[in-house]
Amino acid sequence: MLFLANIQGLHQSCGYADFIDKYLQIPAYGIQPPAFSNSSADENCSTIATMVTHAEIKISPFFDQLQICSMCPLLYDPLGSPTTILYLQSGSTVYFDRSDVKAAMQAPQNVEWNECTAGVFADHSAHGS
């Protein structure tokens, strides 16, 4: 109950409640801003989604907010992690990370496939990883 009370308090103090009341109504108040930002100095305001996600995973390690019908056992997906759960079956290879697939697409061999990034191939070598 303490966690829920904390989240509800942040919902109010960070301005999320006011934003929802103003912009997520029918009929619409006006054009919704491109991104919600708050002026609060509370660092928890910027991490509230992460806090909730971590709490969800503690209750059910297989819960996925993008695919709420996911169940145990997780199904293998050759793209690696098409959901919020990072799962790759033991011994398997992400399809777009295979050297033959990269060669066929004329993609660089020295980068790792990443489904959710500015570009589908993220160059981790520049970041030391």
Brief description of this entry?
The chain is built from 4 helices and 2 strands; from the N terminus they run H-H-H-H-E-E.
> SSE order, as H and E?
HHHHEE
Number of domains: 2
Question: Which sheet architecture does the biggest sheet show?
Answer: 2 strands, antiparallel
Q: Approximately how much helix is present in the residues? A: 25-40%
What general outline do the C-alpha atoms trace? extended
Please report the total strand number as a whole number.
Answer: 2
Low-confidence stretches: none
Please give the radius of gyration in angstroms. Answer: 20 Å
- Class derived from helix and strand content: mainly alpha
Q: What percentage of amino acids are in beta strands?
A: under 5%
* Quaternary structure type: single chain
Separation of the first and last Cα atoms: 39 Å
Task: Tell me the strand order in the biggest sheet.
Answer: 1-2
Average residue pLDDT: 76
Count of runs of 4 or more consecutive helical residues: 4
